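Input record (one chain):
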Amino acid sequence: MQKPMITIISLLLFVSGAASQILEPVKWHFSKEQVSAREVHLHINAAIDDNWYLYGQEIPEGGPIPTFFHIDVNEHFELIGKVEDMVDPEIKFDPFFSMDLPLFSNEARFRQKVRILSESEFVITGFVEYMSCDDERCLPPQEVEFEFILNEGVVPAPAAADESGRLPGVTAAPETAATPDESATVDEEPGPAFTGENESGQTGYPVTGTSAAKPSPADTATDSRSLWLFFFIAFAGGLAGLLTPCVFPMIPMTVSFFMQKQSGRLNSIINALVFGISIIAVYTSLGLLVSLTSVGAGFANQLSSHWLPNLLFFLLFIAFAASFFGLFEITLPGSLATKADTKAESGGYLGSFFMALTLVIVSLSCVGPIVGALLVEAATGTGAKPVIGMFGFSLAFAVPFTLLAIFPSWLNKLPKSGGWLNSVKVVLGFIVLAFSLRFLMVVDQTYHWGILTRDVYLAIWIVIFTLLGFYLLGKLRLAHDSKLDHVSVPRLFIAIASFAFVVYLVPGMFGAPLKPISSLLPPQHSLSFDIGAIIRDSGTGTAAIPSELCDEPRFADFLTLPHGLQGYFDLEQGLACAQELNKPVFLSFTGHACSNCKEMEARVWSDQRVLERLRNDFVIISLYVDDRTRLPEDEWITSEIDGRVKNTIGRKNLDYQISAFNTNTQPYYVVMDPGGNLLNQPRGYSLNRDAFAEFLETAVMSFGENP
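The corresponding structure, as predicted from the sequence alone:
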């Protein structure tokens, strides 16, 4: 593809360090094992980088690209069975593909048994095709070639073999490829790969580096803001925990402990500070334990997607909700609190620590769901998130106790214990009950029960928060509630918030995206009745060319854009239209099997600012890097990178992405003028809608200054 010189210069300015920009999270190793005179085991092993995973061989239809082994069979050997998994993959539910997917983390080991049919030296050749992802991006399917030399150095005995070189009495297998599925076929040129040599001199190994999509300051700030937001949510959880019946009555008891045991103002303050720091230390240690457990052990994926922990959390939260409603009382073994309280009587700094430990043990009966929810949410994030969450929770928990221990006269301003504490407990029960459905949702999707669809899920939430509103207004009384003579202002405000939330949920049953809480809900496609989808579908199927496009897009009969957007799926056609309309180009490198691409489109492209910019100010070109549709022969190209023929839509698009932008990750977004000159630094995966809107706006302004 010929490009103007100014385009090449522009790309060189934006993309540097070409030799170190391509990712290679999976490294393959090949070996053989002679188990008998006529049988050899071929071992194909993958070393997988931390936080990356490799898809398994058995992928349901409509899912991502499976790991696929192609072996060129000849008359010298035959295959015994299929390629075997020597390590069991982890089964994880992918919400964007709505199916269970087998994933390998850290390592994958495969074995193919081979029966030797010849006494002469021969070579087994083939390639492995695979796809890998991490939590933020996916790489397009790649191929790695391999070869095994068998009977190496053996000189055949003339009488032992027939004219074809086969052993007497053994029939050669037909020349077919070994595949994990009998229906799987490979009809394309091998690629994409960056040919190098492995330790044994075999070719076909990718030579890769890092991505060219450097994080912008906005993206870095996004991660920081996300952690700060989680900290404040945890802090709010700690404040809510103070109002539970297990904790609030302990405030005067704890303050009196310091007033009785200490002599001297300074000594009392120091012991109160030790007490507060001890509370923070105990809870933060719990967060640190989760953090150390989750890093490098696949704990986050297991906790967030595996059916067993999710089912256990669902049942545990249901038990807590029933306890908060007054069905029974959950209490920890009294011996734990008794032993800690006995140690607290010893006084001094050690006594302050054990007093803090006593408070933590006693409070868990009420704050357990808050702590559990925070740890579950934190475990699915960065390694520091559990520590930050528990620090925020414990800080809110400890500060009031510490301040009241230092200033005991403030106790007189606190409200007295009474029936309102049980009301707090019941409100927490409603919230815990609603949140428990999130765990059952994972189990439901994992086993494809189809019970908790989005509309059923929302219907249950609507009922729960409606009952909460009626409870706060005194229209619903539970076993341990006292009679409510009047509704206080705080109860009224919380009731209004509960009913307002119900009104907000109702449109979601008919297709409203409910983006702020979408991560807590089943996928949008599980709705039985989606007005938005019906409207979008009613506008499809026409041959009319959309008014904002220059001509009918190629490949639009099987490739689509989300949210009713119109655009092109062929680079040359899209650039020609951008030139005609004098508009900048929004270039999206995506894939059918790219789950993070779908997440970006669902959560970022759906932002009204982003949608308006894309719809009105850009010509959209969406390039699928994993589409296997064969191109007409006159559109085939020979790659300048690996020298291979690119004869499909996906291979040609991926070759362009690598050659032009020196990266092979998706999603990857580029804004440029019709001549191919970059208007802004390309972006990868980031759920920061503000930054993405600014990314588009800056490009439009830059294009306006130099149209």
